[in-house]
Amino acid sequence: MLEHLFTETVQKTMGEEGYGAWRSISAPDAVSLSFGFPYPDSFPNEELLTAARDLFAEEGDVALQYTGGENAQSLAGIVAEQAARRGVDCDPEQVVLTNGATHAIDVVCRTFLEPDDGVFVEAPTFMGALRLFEGYGADVTGLPMDADGLDVSAMADELAARRDEGRPLPKLCYTIPTFHNPRGVTLPLDRRERLLELAAEYDFVVLEDDAYGELRYDGDPLPPLKALDETGRVVRVGTYSKTIAPGVRTGWVVADGDVAEQIDRMNAGGTNRFTQGVVARYCRDGHYDRTVAAVREAYERRRDVMLDRLESYMPPEAEWSDPDGGFFVWVTLPEGVDTSAMLTRAGEEGVVYLPGEHFYADGRGERSLRLSFSHASPEEIDDGIAALARAAEAAIESR
Ligand SMILES: Cc1ncc(COP(=O)(O)O)c(C=O)c1O
């Protein structure tokens, strides 16, 4: 009835899947390797309960006021301290608290994007971010990736071609440089530096999504893009969803002062002060560091089991990524296999995954799929990969 009053973007995209529709991919009795969810036992229920009790004991009703109390107000400083440990030098005024990283991306979009503005993304990329960019009516271009992440040379070529031909340049480049979702890869230092040079040369914002940055299992840490940023073009988003729990819906934006100020203005009115207070107490009591260390070990074990079983069970034509951290392995099957069509057979064999097409703005990714090792137990991962191998063999044979 109100259709004609919807924005043009809503009218154009009305038939499309809603945000989070991919979460409903499941099959009875099948192991789900599709959820990018933390495993249930990772949640620090007791510690959060203690933090909430201590918060009420200390602050009483102030903890539930619009402004929150001292604990909630201290969280920006805690985020800044944690960022400093990763090499990002910022003060609390540069931290804008949000209800998770998705919300953080949303407020960055609200600050920078108008309909038809160009946005560069990695192809593939996090489907939640794609939905947001589409919701703002942005003109999204997927850039190629390889085993080292974003192909920055291809990006340089695309930018130069656009400039030479007088085509519009992007306003924003969204990237997940560390433990990419869905490809699992990490961008090396030289490419990070080159990306920032391009941003300065062509005048665009680099939106760095570091949702998984704390979850490294191998290799030496690399500086986040924001740590390398000398021109203030990097806007960084992060979240406690993967290190505490998604349900706390607490994340942040880190940006240079004047940018942070405008993002904060756009973010008026609605973050969860009570949860921010609980999270701040939780971190100050040392639970954050202890829990992150424990979940890192548990995820490393799950990743190792997944990679080992892929090696043991998968047909020789299959390829997959070798992540040093994060939640995901990206599997590519030979030409002619359609992973969306294969999902029915996979469900019958006992596994579900996310077909590759969900991660592209233009429906590519037909022969790829994303596996998550974060939610299933090591035993389930073993069963799931055996089932995936059976489904993949059948799909390869029937090409
Ligand atoms: C790259 C990336 N960014 C953001 C998010 C969402 O984070 P949040 O739960 O804080 O909104 C996810 C999780 O699914 C993700 O993979």
Automatic annotation (TrEMBL):
Pfam family, one: Aminotran_1_2
Lineage: superkingdom: Archaea
Similarity comment: Belongs to the class-I pyridoxal-phosphate-dependent aminotransferase family.
Keyword Transferase: yes
Matching Gene3D superfamilies: Aspartate Aminotransferase, domain 1 (3.90.1150.10), Type I PLP-dependent aspartate aminotransferase-like (Major domain) (3.40.640.10)
Summary of subunit composition and partner proteins: Homodimer.
Keyword terms, alphabetized: Aminotransferase, Pyridoxal phosphate, Transferase
Name this polypeptide is given: 2-aminoadipate transaminase
Biological processes annotated in GO: alpha-amino acid metabolic process
Cofactors (names): pyridoxal 5'-phosphate
Molecular function in Gene Ontology: pyridoxal phosphate binding; transaminase activity
The keyword Transferase belongs to this UniProt entry's keyword annotation: yes
Domain Aminotransferase class I/classII large: 44-388
Entry-linked SUPFAM superfamilies: PLP-dependent transferases (SSF53383)
